[in-house]
Specification:
By secondary structure, the protein is α+β, with helices and mostly antiparallel strands. Helix content is about 30%, strand content about 25%. Strands 1-2-3-4 form a 4-stranded antiparallel β-sheet, with helices on one face.
């Protein structure tokens, strides 16, 4: 597994995971809105997204964590999502 910082070029990989994250919290599926939200956050440098990527045979994005920048340095908020099938493969964050 490889962890990398996402850029706008990674939106197609992270948007489905972010949409699944939204659905987990009761939102309706809306892949276009999820992609647009992430595009805006990254383009405005309002958040940093790290992707967990399978660097083996599957070569796909396994999960993400998104850190939101705040005006006060000590304040941060994070979102995270890992594909269900990859949670027992070492990609799930342990809190």
């Amino acid at each position: 597994m490889l962890v990398k910082r996402a850029s706008v070029a990674d939106l197609d990989a992270v948007a489905p995971l972010f949409d699944a994250y939204r659905q987990f919290y009761g939102q309706r599926p809306d892949p276009a809105a999820a992609r647009a939200f992430l595009d805006e956050r990254l383009s405005r440098d309002e958040s940093v997204i790290f992707l967990a990527v399978d660097d083996g045979e599957r070569d796909e994005t396994l999960g993400f964590t998104q850190l939101y920048r705040r005006s006060r340095p000590a304040t941060a908020r994070a979102s995270k999502r890992v594909r269900r099938r990859d949670r027992r493969e070492g990609a799930h964050p342990r809190n």
